[in-house]
Amino acid sequence: MAIHPPETKIWWKEPVHSIEIWWVLIALVWSLIMFVMMPYWHVYGEQNLSNEAYRVDPEYFGEKVEDMVKKYTIREEGDTGIPVVAPPVGSDVFLLARLWEWYPILELKKGEKYRLHLSSMDWMHGFSLQPTNINLSIHPGYDFVVTITPTESGKFSIICNEYCGIGHHTMAGRMYVTDK
Ligand code: CUA
């Protein structure tokens, strides 16, 4: 039992069993393979998105979102009248996460570049764009920026994939991509 001192106190001078050495070697080689694969997948596998992150005050981020919503709302949807916003091509677009919604609904144009800013108003949420399967962690106090160019038009779902409380399963949003 671990509460008693070991019989041989100088345990690090004990000979290491050859099987243990093999396990250490296997683990080392595997970790090195993973280390190389991370950048490899980024460059050749179109995974592990490049992003920027900045500290941001949630209130300030909320104001940026409201500014965009005021200027570029084109219609409202659903019972709650959530605004659908079509910001100018090439601009900074904002999406906020809060208990328990994604706000607003963005409508982007296919083949055009946008700087997408994501942040949370309360605590950690998971941005999961489906069916594209892009997954990002959204934290309060951080402006997470990804430069995106939608390559497919259609209706996309945004679901929260980080458990965030009682309404987590209802935290679903939407994004539209229109043909030019
Ligand atoms: Cu937000 Cu789960």
Report on the architecture of this protein:
The chain has 180 residues and is α+β, with helices and mostly antiparallel strands. The chain is elongated and about 75 Å long. Strand 2 and strand 3 form a beta hairpin. The chain folds into 2 domains: 28 residues; 128 residues, Immunoglobulin-like (Sandwich). The strands form 2 sheets. Strands 2-3-6-12-11-8-9 form a 7-stranded mixed sheet. A 5-stranded mixed sheet has the order 1-10-7-4-5, with helices on one face. It contains 2 helices and 12 strands; from the N terminus they run αβαβββββββββββ. Bound molecules: dinuclear copper ion. Dinuclear copper ion binds next to loops. The site of dinuclear copper ion has 8 residues, from loops.
Tell me the domain tally. Answer: 2
Q: What's the oligomerization state?
A: single chain
The total count of strands amounts to 12
Return the structural class. alpha+beta
Q: Characterize the largest beta sheet: strand count, sense, and whether it forms a barrel.
A: 7 strands, mixed
H/E element sequence: HEHEEEEEEEEEEE
Chemical compounds bound to the protein? dinuclear copper ion
Look at the structure and name the CATH superfamily of the largest domain. Cupredoxins -  blue copper proteins
The rounded Rg comes to 23 Å
Corresponding CATH architecture of the largest domain: Sandwich
Fraction in beta strands:
35-45%
Estimate the mean pLDDT confidence: 92
Q: Portion of residues in helices? A: 10-25%
